[in-house]
Specification:
single chain; alpha+beta; Alpha-Beta Plaits; 3 helices; 4 strands
Length: 97
Amino acid sequence: MPEPKHWFLVMYDVREPKRLRRAAKHLEGYGHRLQYSVFRCRLTHRQIERLQWELTKMLETEDDLLIIELCQGCGTKVADRNGQEDWKEGWKGHEIV
């Protein structure tokens, strides 16, 4: 049985433009950009651990990284101003192979 996927919000504050672009490009492979430095990702716990490790190697100690796991109930209660985001359980977004 495959490991279940969960919603994660990944936010960062990177102080150097080159690292900032590299982190943003890397995150595009894992999830969907909501704002300039905020991504939503539907990943397994193993995948989020890998992503966190990769970003830790990429960023410096002066940079900030915040990863928040959303419970299933929280994910269905997300409201956005434009009403275009789909946070449903069956979302078929980015798949990491």
